[in-house]
Amino acid sequence: MACSALICDSEPWKDLKGHVEDIKKTHLRDLMRDSERCKSMMVEFDGLLLDYSRQCARQDTIQKLFGLAEAAHLKEKIKKMYDGEHINSTEDRSVLHVALRASRDTVICNDGKNIVSDVWKVLDKISEFSERVRSGSWVGVTGKALKDVIAVGIGGSFLGPLFVHTALQTDPEAIACAEGRQLRFLANVDPIDVARSITGLNPETTLVVVVSKTFTTAETMLNARTLREWISAALGSEAVAKHMVAVSTNLTLVEKFGIDPNNAFAFWDWVGGRYSVCSAVGMLPLSLQYGFSVVEKFLKGASSIDQHFYSAPFDKNIPVLLGLLSVWNVSFLGYPARAILPYSQALEKFAPHIQQACMLTTTLSFNMESNGKGVSIDGVPLPFEAGEIDFGEPGTNGQHSFYQLIHQGRVIPCDFIGVVKSQQSALFMFLLDCFTGEVVSNHDELMSNFFAQPDALAYGKSPEQLLTEKVPQHLISHKTFSGNRPSLNLLLPCLNAYNIGQLLAIYEHRIAVEGFIWGINSFDQWGVELGKSLASQVRKQLNKSRTKGEPVEGFNYSTTTMLKKYLEAKSSIPCDPTTLLPKA
Ligand SMILES: O=P(O)(O)OC[C@H]1O[C@](O)(CO)[C@@H](O)[C@@H]1O
Fold this sequence. Notes:
Elements: H1 11-24, H2 28-31, H3 35-40, E1 42-45, E2 48-51, H4 59-71, H5 74-82, E3 109-110, E4 113-114, H6 116-135, E5 148-152, H7 159-168, H8 172-177, E6 182-186, H9 191-198, E7 206-211, H10 218-235, H11 240-243, E8 244-248, H12 251-257, E9 264-266, H13 280-290, H14 292-311, H15 318-332, E10 337-342, H16 350-358, H17 366-371, E11 389-392, H18 403-408, E12 414-419, H19 427-431, H20 442-459, H21 463-468, H22 476-479, E13 487-492, H23 497-518, H24 526-548, H25 557-568, E14 575-576, E15 581-582
Parallel strand pairs: 5-6, 5-7, 7-8, 8-9, 10-11, 10-12, 12-13
Antiparallel strand pairs: 1-2, 2-13, 3-4, 14-15
Bound molecules: 6-O-phosphono-beta-D-fructofuranose.
GO molecular function, one term: carbohydrate derivative binding
EC number: 5.3.1.9
Subunit structure: Homodimer.
């Protein structure tokens, strides 16, 4: 395909378009009867099982999708990514988050230079620093060990590390390593978030890690200054050197902020913010909390998927299959959203992370920032829908809220993520068959839903079935489930650091596959910049009005009215910097 050609003009795309009507005539009830088909739609790799037999697709659909992959030069694009070509063309950068988890002996080059040794220099520094802090050889200004960490950062400098931290928090090995320690995150510039992050913490025993790729993000920098004030007010300004460290690509600004450059942990412009969990962005706070040996396992899990993604044939390649199926669901079947449904509470922050990587809600994800685009990589407007709205909630909580929508409302393809061996066992596990009368353990109860829900979505319930069940006539339409709702299952052996790394990398690469097929740049984010620049105009106005009493001007009627109303009241409550609590 020529450079500015769109994938929708290719023959395989047109062929798939024509195939849609064919597929619409099928029903998952019938497709699921074909065991050979189902068998061909299962892939196992490194302890993982992907079952995509409940996709509205036949084997020939999958073959057609492979044809589309070829037309989009998917293999070549993956190779270009690993080869360090500047595939993020609008920012003229390579996209090399795979280098962040490569083993020491791997060679991955950016602009002709092997970057794996740079990666390991920083990882070794993280390992050494976190060990000093954890062992108490690095102490705060009053000589006390630093047992609590607040990681200040937003977007990609927050959501990924939060996901991994939340997932590790209940893993027995990680629990043992984190004994007596706390890791908190401060992302939102909302004073409520600030108060939550420091409540109950003593500056004497707290280390603040400021995480910002650019070191210019307004929310992060204000929060960092606020915590610097909190530390200085309690311990004196010289305490900053012992109580604040930074992670950034902009070491000049780190130094200007007042953080000792020796206490700065670098990463590089070839790491996109939302793909930065495996850089110091995630590795420093997580290593401080759990120790380097745990985070190293996480990196190894991600690396295992990196190698699989690079070398496995497409019919056995989990991220490739997931990406192609997403394209099928979004661009051909017309389903704009995807539900990410982990059947493990430990993964409660997974969907929020994927949203940014993919888009953004209260917990928006990385897919939405990556693939929420309307033009091709060459700047040509897309005449088809790309990107999807990701949302999710761990089962069975989701079942008691939005599952009604996915069963009988809109068709939303679902990713069911399950775990064979839970991180935890509840009491009933041991008492089964004894005197409790419980039928299954908590985990089996949870997983019963993981196995049942996809079939409920696929098969539904017809009016005929309901009649045989003697459902009253007036309720038949209310109780009818159309079924034929696509889903897939990803089953992980357990949820240790290694598996968490695998899961992260699978979803990162799935996003890349989608973007490569759609022909968009998944690695820039110009869309979020507009909101940032408009906020800066408002910030200037608030400052002028509050400090000089200047009138609100230059905004539309709506914004002017709201700003005036807002400025009428004194919205900031004076606070004591040592506690950051409102002054009585
Ligand atoms: O790490 P930084 O530079 O503070 O940026 C934070 C986040 O802001 C964004 O640029 C936009 O949300 C993200 O891509 C990034 O992760």
